[in-house]
Amino acid sequence: MNRYIKKKSLDPLETYVPAVIQAREQLVDAGKLMVQDPIEARIRLRSSAFEGLRDNIRALGEYATTNNAASERAAKDLVNRTFGTIQDFDFQLFSANRNKEPVGKEAETKLEQAISAMDDLLATVPADSMSKAREVLKSIESRALARSNGDAVEAYDEQMLQRLVPDAP
Q: Per the database record, which ranges form the DUF7880 domain (predicted)?
């Protein structure tokens, strides 16, 4: 059957890692917000970096097997655990909102499990790819800060592009 199904080749690993790191940070932010506003916390689990999270996490799982960071079974387990724990956390927020109850300790436990699962998946990423991803995120944040201050960002963009991709035009 695999002969008849064409799989799209993956983009470079550096394409997926920044989004997963950003989603992890967004998950932590949702956790800080969950006690005051579980509805807003759930909205954060569906916006921004979480919009393409399924594809990004699956790609990291595939790269984990190709980079020998994990066996195929271990990578699938990491991916499934990541999805499951995020879903469990989301369900805790949903239940608290539906039952008009405060978010309990179980939600905090599910949040910690989700963050741990994402950390375990990110641990399979090679160090050079991880540092490049962090640099990309830092440049995005710096650009957003420059834009909010009213600074011209075109020169900054060109400088960052030259630093991140040395052979770019």
A: 12-136
